[in-house]
Amino acid sequence: MFSKTDRTGSGNAIPSIIGTSMKVAGDLESEGSVQIEGTIHGDMRCAEVTVGRDAHVQGHIYADVANIHGSVNGEIRATKAVLSSTARVVGNIIHEELSVESGAHVEGQMMRRDAEQARLNLVVSETS
Length: 128
Description:
Elements: H1 4-7, E1 16-18, E2 23-25, E3 28-29, E4 33-36, E5 39-41, E6 44-51, E7 56-58, E8 61-68, E9 71-73, E10 76-83, E11 88-90, E12 93-100, E13 105-107, E14 110-112, H2 113-127
Parallel strand pairs: 1-4, 2-5, 3-6, 4-6, 5-7, 6-8, 7-9, 8-10, 9-11, 10-12, 11-13, 12-14
């Protein structure tokens, strides 16, 4: 069956799952993986998030890895962002690595994290 090592540690941890019949209002934080199949109204901070095909997120996502198959209305900040052909994102995507499949719908800007930092430095230096 399951050993203690299967339930602890980020490498082999079982993901937290928000099922299709669940609606969550509020922010979510996890040091591990989160799989969303239902609806979230709030911001998410986690190591890895997967937004399922029929899932809806209304809020910002902050993650190391963001796998988007469903709907996100808010900003995504991720080291690695992957948008499948069924993804629908309304909001900016700030990333270091980005993959977008044909058919994905994005309304917003896509910026590399280092490009965003350069823009912030420019704004700061103009005011000095």
